[in-house]
Amino acid sequence: MKGSLKFQLMVGFNLVILLMVTMMGVALALVMRSELLRRAQDSLMVSLAESSNTLDYFYSVYLAKSDTAFLDLELNELLTRESQGLGERIAQRRVIMEKLARMVTFDLRYPEVRNSYYFGGSTRVRLYVRNRTLVNEVDFFPYEEIYHTAAFQNLMASAHMFSWDADEAVGGVPYVAFSRRLLNMETFEDIALMKVLLPTARVRNILLQNANSDVAAFVYSDASFGPIVGGGAAQVQQQLTSGDIEGSLGRVIEVHSGGQVHLVSTVASDLTGWNLTYAVPKALVVRSTRTVMALTATACVITIFLGVLASTLISSGITRHIDLLVLKTRRVAAGNLEIDEALRDTGSNEISQLSRAFDTMTQEILALHQKEMTTRLRINEVRAELLQEQINPHLLYNTLSMIKLVAKRDDQQETFELAEGLVNFYKGVLNRGSLVAPIKRELFMVRNFVETTCKVYGLRIGLNLRIPTAVEKLYTVKLFLQPLVENAVLHGIRPGGFGILDISAVLEGNSIVFTIVDDGIGIDDGVLEAMQTAMGGGDAPGRRQYGGFGVLNVYKRMKLFFGEAGNMCICSKAGEGTAITLTIPAFTREDIDRWLQERQIGGL
């Protein structure tokens, strides 16, 4: 057992499973921890962006209100009119402030809105006016008082219509403010600066309501990170205001405070340029990763147990199929190519497929062996037939030569010509005992046969030979065309007494394609089907009609000599004629000798 394949597979599988599960568990825990941390960071930045957008929307509401005041022509006229009497001035100021209250600070009119976290607190408006008749140092202040400030000069230099201030205070109450330039609609000169004061308590309430429960502290600061308002743990707030948090702008950093590590991120407002910073305890994320790691460890233990069990079953299954395959290979090595049904593997795994492929290969080897034996028997038969064919033409050749001499002696010219034609024909058939002949000689024999047959049977046959010179120079096995021409003449044209016989050839790649077409009586469908069945290896009655015997002999010899490189196709229609297409390799003398030698036919 210790040195067996099954034991080795079990040990190997278990080691691989243990290593893979451990590595996957560690990797999964690290990935999950990193993913949880990344999600916490993303959540922090999303929460920041939402809170910042909420504040920007809050500010934009008052910006939109200030546009109403900016475009109000009546307010424009009131700010530029110089009143004479004290009563008129007081009335003029009251009308201006009432209009601004309706346009900008309307929330003062509704206690429900005033006390809500979003609109709660008192919004104030201050006007710095060029019209000195309106100055009262309460709500109306001289334009010169603010004109020389750096903030106002920056506003004028920027060509903007408003600016933001974070350090306003009235009566000890802190405000954030935005200043809006008001212009004379006729001359487009500055007539006043309207400053809208928003309580920082309102800003803090908005941030408190929008911060999620994980936020330990937040700080809202101006563009230079000067604190405006904060919330949450005081110690963390102090760290955020005293530490260097500029590096957290647009990303998440870690800040140590009070023995804890916080994830800190800052987002800047596109509207005000002010910064909002959140701090979230990293321990919240780490705590969630502990649960993930515990679950991962439990899953790893279960996976290892199941893996050991599975490896045992798999090892047994694999070795069972391998043992079966080894047994069959030993039988084949001993010369037994027969596969018993009891040894066939019916499984669906790769080794079973390999075993079945081995069975198929063994059966194919057995079939090839049997086919080779059959081919050798057939070659021996052909050798005997060829020996007999060499004896018969020799006898006929000698006999016809004597008939030719007698006919010449007795001055029988017609008999002499017929005998001479047959002598030439059989001379080509003998070919000095060679199996191979040039195609040009095959064509000579065809022409000789047609001429002799016409004389004997009194036929009128138009013979068209369209053979390229390049084809005539090639070689083939003798008597390939003559039997097909003989069938066309005797069984196709002869019943009608006259006809056309067309023989053509073309080179297609490494093959020669011969086409023998006659316009004779054709072949009946039943006879043609029988011949095609016989060519496919079957046996059908009637295949000897229309010279089926000679055609099939040519087909069999072609397959014997050329195998898959040779092919024959017969097309015919009764009363219209027959076309036979014969495809053989295009061989030179050296090529065909080498081909036949490789197939052990060279000695025929």
Polypeptide structure, described:
With 604 residues, the chain is α+β, with helices and mostly antiparallel strands. The chain has 3 domains: 1-336, no CATH class; 347-433; 435-604, Histidine kinase-like ATPase, C-terminal domain (Heat Shock Protein 90, 2-Layer Sandwich), CATH 3.30.565. 55% of the residues lie in helices and 20% in strands. The chain has 17 helices and 17 strands. The protein has helices at 5-71, 73-80, 86-103, 111-114, 143-147, 150-158, 200-210, 234-242, 282-333, 350-409, 413-430, 439-457, 469-472, 482-493, 525-535, 548-562, 589-598; strands at residues 124-129, 140-142, 162-170, 173-183, 190-199, 217-221, 227-232, 252-257, 260-268, 275-281, 436-438, 460-466, 475-477, 498-508, 511-518, 567-573, 577-585. Strands 2-1-5-4-3 form a 5-stranded mixed sheet, with helices on both faces. Strands 7-6-10-9-8 form a 5-stranded antiparallel sheet, with helices on both faces. A 5-stranded mixed sheet has the order 12-14-15-17-16. The radius of gyration is 56 Å and the shape is elongated. 26% of the residues are buried.
Topology (SSEs and partners):
Layout lengths: L4 H67 L1 H8 L5 H18 L7 H4 L9 E6 L10 E3 H5 L2 H9 L3 E9 L2 E11 L6 E10 H11 L6 E5 L5 E6 L1 H9 L9 E6 L2 E9 L6 E7 H52 L16 H60 L3 H18 L5 E3 H19 L2 E7 L2 H4 L2 E3 L4 H12 L4 E11 L2 E8 L6 H11 L12 H15 L4 E7 L3 E9 L3 H10 L6
Parallel strand pairs: 1-2, 12-14
Antiparallel strand pairs: 1-5, 3-4, 4-5, 6-7, 6-10, 8-9, 9-10, 11-13, 14-15, 15-17, 16-17
